[in-house]
Amino acid sequence: MPEEVAKPTDDSKKNLWSQILSDVQNNGNPKLPSCKQVLVLGDNECGKTTIVAKLQGVEDPKKGSGLEYAYIDVRDDYRDDQTRLSVWVLDGDPGHTDLLKFALNEETFQHTLVILTVTMTAPWSILEQLQHWASVLADHLDKLKLDVDLRQNRRQHIVKMWQEYVEPGDELDPASPMKRSSRTFGEGEDGLEEQTSLPEGTLTNNLGLDIVVVVTKTDYIQTLEKEHDYRDEHLDFMQQWIRKFCLQYGAALFYTSAKEDKNCDLLYKYLTHRIYGFPFRTPALVVEKDAVFIPAGWDNMNKIRILYENLHTCKPDDYFRDIIVQPATRKTINRETELLAEDEQAFLARQQQILFAGGNNLQGPRLGETPIRSSPLGKATLDGSKVVSSPGGEGVLANFFNSLLHKKTGSSPGNSFVNKPGGPESMDKATMRSDAAAELDRLARGGKKSGPSSGSGVDFNASDC
Question: What end-to-end distance do the CA atoms of the chain give, in Å?
Answer without folding.
Answer: 146
